[in-house]
Design a protein that fits this description.
about 650 residues, Trna Endonuclease, Chain: A, domain 1, 24 helices, 12 strands, about 50% helix, about 10% strand, elongated
Amino acid sequence: MEEESLSALRDLLPVAWTMEVVQRDYGKDVRVEIADSGRMTALAFWVQLKATDAANVRGSLSISFATTTLNYLSAQADPVLLVRFHAPSGRLFGTWLHRHDLRLKRSGQKSLSVRWKLSEEMTAASSPLLLEEVHRFRRVGDSARLPLTVRIRINGGAEKIRTSVMPLIDDAIKATRVPLKLVDEEGADLRILIGSRKVEVDTPLATVQAESELTFDPIETADNAVIAMSLGLGAVGLPSPAVDLILRCTEAPLLRNEDVAGRISSAFAASNRLGDASDLALLCQSGRPGREALGRLLNTYVLMDDRDIPLSDARQIADNYVRLAERQQMSGENAGAAWYSAGNYLFHGLSDYSAALHAYKAAAEARPDYRSQEYWQQETAAAMFETGDFTGAAELYQKSAQGLQSPAPRLLARIADCLAHSGDTAGAINLLNQYAETETDPEPAWVLKRFALQSLDYTPTRRQAGPDAADYGAEGVPKSAAKDEPGDRSHERVDETADQNTGKSKNLTRLVHTGLQVDAALQRFVYAADEGDAAAALAVFTLACAFPGEEMDEPWAALLQTARLLREEHQKEWTLPGGIFAAALDTAIHRKGNDLVRELLATGSPFMPAELVQEVKERADELRASRTRTVFVRAVNEDGSRDVLEIGLSPSDGG
């Protein structure tokens, strides 16, 4: 049937049009180049042929495509025509891939169905329509061809108000200065059909269908049309003008549609209009019934996503969360959920821990059952920790753990952190040991905290004088039993590095958080470090990075440099935890990012080895490569790749 279908397509297309068959892994594609008036036009499209010998025509007009195939086809620079060949009748049916709003219903979905309509049967008269569609597809995105043309049709009962609606739409276009022009011709770039309930937006890249409230009001109908135009602009890669139109018509009934809301949120995100999105979300959550769907989607998929949000926008978003909670509270509604959402954003989005704690407590006042919920207990405990109430945070974390048969290792680590900051280092070490035993893949930051607290047991000894006396004593203190080889000054390199990094200053104790109550031990370490005990210096730097003092910079460069030198010089003879360097390196990269290398180079130390900088760079690259984020798009590859962003993100199923 394959050759038969190719022959049928060849017979249907104009003789001057060329066909090239390309073999793919999933079958054959046909590339068609278009000629017009006897001349080649440099316009082309792809054809994906699917033949069937099923007897019934209507029943054969649906087929399942692998999402990987659709990904590949959608990524082509030229449009793709999906053609169904019905062998028994010799009929061909064609539908453009970009005209289908293909969306995954679940993550990991491996196939999607495409259906042809009987009205899409191809005949010899189809070639002008094919040429027109390829022209439309190519035109979009060419800034030199702006403004885009828009044709609006109003059908059904709403047709009688057309004369009132069209001037309102034209006013919206002119007021927002978006690159659109109303026309009354078939070949328009955007084609919008408005009925009493249904709105359809047809663009060269996608077709969107949505239902709205039944309305014959001219203003509401015009607003629906404007929102439809914004969907079209977003679909063809013009999100900022799309947002301008949306903000012009915030009362449109079409905004009640959740699918429309999801697409709108993508436009706000792409144009980085997050403050405006927050204002619209607040309006929608306080407006007419049903429109809270828009506010919910904007909050979840735009405002709470992992984005670098400008501080002004972040504060605006936080203020709107609080305003919504206060408004609900004043109107007599239960504002518990609103306060809890406000707390989450203040904590995670703005790092305003004091305000977040207030919001969490207000949520529990409005809904007392929050106090028994594990998630509220842990979020509130985290806010208490960040505001310095370590004892209260420990108690609330422990209360959360009591309700669990086997607390998560990370919860044990958080309790340990609270205990350490409250001065209970023994209790903290005990829980961190449990964390290390139960967690299959311990996080470097928790490992480093465990090492730091364990280093408090180190007994520093004063270095003896003499160039060959690199003996740091007993009880696990680093030592070098063998004499140096001629010209070997390794022990001097370690000792001078420690001298330079400590700066011979007892004020280094300020680097460690006072809540640990370990000033006496730190004084001994600093004194020993000033006398040349590099391991004592390492203990200070480890504690300072794992438990930094208030408003103090963590000495990551000093920690990495000292740990690496000790690791190199003493190797197996170094009985302090040998994993300090690895834990410190991964934690420092996570905390400092690209600034870590600059910080290392800025130390100005003559003993800063180039190998250390290179090791940091290589490890940073490894960690960056291991971080993956799954983004669900309209058709997703099995490996999660994002090669079809051109046809739009789907905020559903994971966002």
